[in-house]
Amino acid sequence: MPLISFTDKGLYCAQGNFYIDPWQPVDKAVITHAHSDHARPGSQAYLCHHHTLPLLQLRLGQGHYQAVEWNEKVYFNEVTVSLHPAGHIIGSSQIRVEYKGEVWVVSGDYKTEADGFSGDFEPISCNTFISESTFGLPIYNWKPQQEIYHDIQNWIRTNEVANKTSVLIGYSLGKAQRLLKAVEEVTGSIYVHGAIWNVHETLTQAGWKLPAVQRITPDMPKETFKSSVVIAPPSADGSPWMRRFSPHSTGICSGWMQVRGNQRRRNADAGFALSDHADWNGLLKAVKATGAEKVFITHGFQSAFSRYLNEIGIDAHEVKTEFGTEDEESQLTN
């Protein structure tokens, strides 16, 4: 029996009787991070990193939660479980599962460049590695974060000269916090959508030091936003909610913006390939660093990435899951 099985409820460890990021309610759920495609409501008990705890409570409500530090060992029967930095978003973790000397690692979503928030991705030696491949094609090759920040800042300055509001589109958990760090260097007037405000409040109450923002409310006059910066989730893009910022320029912040056609298709004025996922080289680096004899690819460009791994001598297999289906970043392809 494999240490982790792929079932209709999610990734299941029979020896420890728990699931990792289940997409149906279960008794025991170990959660990699708080994005909605990995953390779903209804389970009896949740185990997560302590930075993820307030975010789970925000998104799933009250429940039975156990929060641990990275590298802290938890025991399910004879199975040892520990959480390790994934670098994807705040609190995001890889799940290390060990039983009788065999080690599997479930990476969840991850990126290998440190962003100053999410913890530095930690390669973990294992027999079997379960990896995403959201951007598992060679075309996806990110510029350094600081370089992208400079591009965003210069774009904002250009909009200010033209008396335009700069509207940045990014996922409310993960992307928005990184954008705040980029934006605070060029303006003190930062306004945010309610969905981003809710996450912002949760994180600041948990002790995170984030730039000051103002929540956008219906009673704010249009003049309030002139030459300012607005951060909004993808769901707001193209909606009537955006009209209050006119004249404005829209910049979409997503790894999908690496392909110029996506920017045109979204009618965006600018596209910034700022992603919370590893690029092609990051994925390869992560997989090789584990030394795993077998790799399972869960979501993204599974066919291309797993085929390449097999070509270079790494035993790789595609697995169908429900990950990636509710992440607002992935919806930018729709």
TrEMBL record:
PANTHER family: BLL1145 PROTEIN, CLEAVAGE AND POLYADENYLATION SPECIFICITY FACTOR FAMILY MEMBER
Keywords linked to the UniProt accession: Ligase
Biological source species: Niastella populi
Record's protein name: DNA ligase-associated DEXH box helicase
GO MF entries: ligase activity; RNA endonuclease activity
Keyword Ligase tagged: yes
